[in-house]
């Protein structure tokens, strides 16, 4: 594995270049199991990524911290960001996007592995995912619940400017960055910066077009316990009521076809149109019935007024 490299420059005016890491050269076996039971991951290699579970598209945590990698349910996993992750924000305008004053201390899950800190990235390397998706997936930050701000960014080499991927707007805030595209068979790590310690719930959606023409989407919430003093039990107990586009983010996986999830806006519109059609039909029947009755009354009156009793 690569040696620990700071994500934020330690010297004013300098930007650290991310170095290639052997940890990015991985492949994932199709038979890697889905582990059960609660676990806290504080160090080692961890990815998030799409995978099929019981033929259903899902977003899981790939745990490579052990000799035999496994997949894990995000609801049963807490990512511990210990005090070993603390770094100082440099006096460099290139990092102004963090929204934190120079000299302040923040918690950083680095892009290049620090052996004392959990190493979080993402992959699209599950064999069935690679066989079924059309070119790649889209990762979307739906929202963040926590005491501070989360920023996720990439730092390439050659003194290039940081590339901001996601930035929350604070507690229960809307994300400030757009979704980004991840090609098939990709394995990437980034910098995750938390401004203050505490429990953070980070809701992420992964969606894709399949080669079959079907659209799939899954939304899950990552649980972070930032800082040594933050309770893991609190992180497990926290409720993922993070608002996303159009309302609260769903906690379960979704499968859609034709672009309209079951129970979504399209379904509601169809239901409303059917209701309007039923009301119009009832009104038409009432009008026709009243018209026929009025016609019969008029005929009876004409017959009664005729001298010979005929109309």
From TrEMBL:
The keyword Membrane belongs to this UniProt entry's keyword annotation: yes
Transmembrane annotation, as ranges: 268-288
Superkingdom classification of source: Bacteria
InterPro entries for the chain: Surface-anchored_actinobac
Keyword annotations of the record: Membrane, Transmembrane, Transmembrane helix
Region Disordered, annotated ranges: 1-24, 238-264
The protein's name: Choice-of-anchor M domain-containing protein
């Amino acid at each position: 594995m690569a040696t620990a490299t700071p994500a934020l420059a330690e010297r004013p005016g300098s930007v650290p270049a991310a170095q290639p890491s052997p940890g990015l050269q991985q492949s994932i076996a199709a038979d890697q199991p889905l582990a059960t039971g609660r676990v806290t991951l504080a160090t080692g290699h961890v990815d998030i990524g799409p995978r099929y579970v019981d033929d259903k598209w899902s977003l899981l945590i790939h745990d490579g911290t052990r000799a035999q990698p496994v997949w894990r349910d995000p609801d049963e996993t807490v990512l511990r960001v210990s005090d070993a992750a603390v770094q100082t924000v440099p006096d460099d305008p290139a990092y102004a996007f963090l929204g934190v004053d120079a000299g302040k201390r923040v918690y950083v899950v680095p892009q290049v592995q620090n052996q004392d800190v959990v190493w979080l990235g993402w992959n699209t390397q599950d064999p069935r995912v690679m066989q079924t998706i059309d070119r790649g997936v889209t990762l979307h930050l739906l929202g963040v619940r926590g005491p501070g701000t989360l920023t996720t960014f990439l730092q390439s080499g050659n003194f290039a400017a940081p590339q901001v991927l996601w930035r929350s707007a604070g507690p229960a805030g809307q994300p400030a960055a757009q979704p980004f595209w991840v090609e098939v068979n990709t394995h990437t790590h980034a910098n995750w910066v938390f401004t203050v310690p505490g429990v953070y719930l980070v809701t992420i959606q992964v969606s894709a077009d399949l080669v079959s023409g079907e659209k799939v989407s899954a939304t899950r919430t990552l649980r972070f316990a930032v800082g040594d003093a933050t309770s893991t039990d609190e992180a497990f107990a926290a409720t993922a009521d993070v608002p996303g586009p159009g309302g609260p983010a769903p906690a379960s996986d979704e499968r859609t076809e034709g672009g309209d999830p079951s129970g979504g806006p399209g379904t509601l519109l169809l239901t409303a149109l059917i209701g309007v059609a039923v009301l119009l039909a009832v009104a038409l029947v009432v009008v026709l019935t009243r018209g026929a009755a009025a016609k019969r009354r008029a005929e009876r009156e004409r017959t009664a007024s005729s001298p010979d009793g005929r109309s």
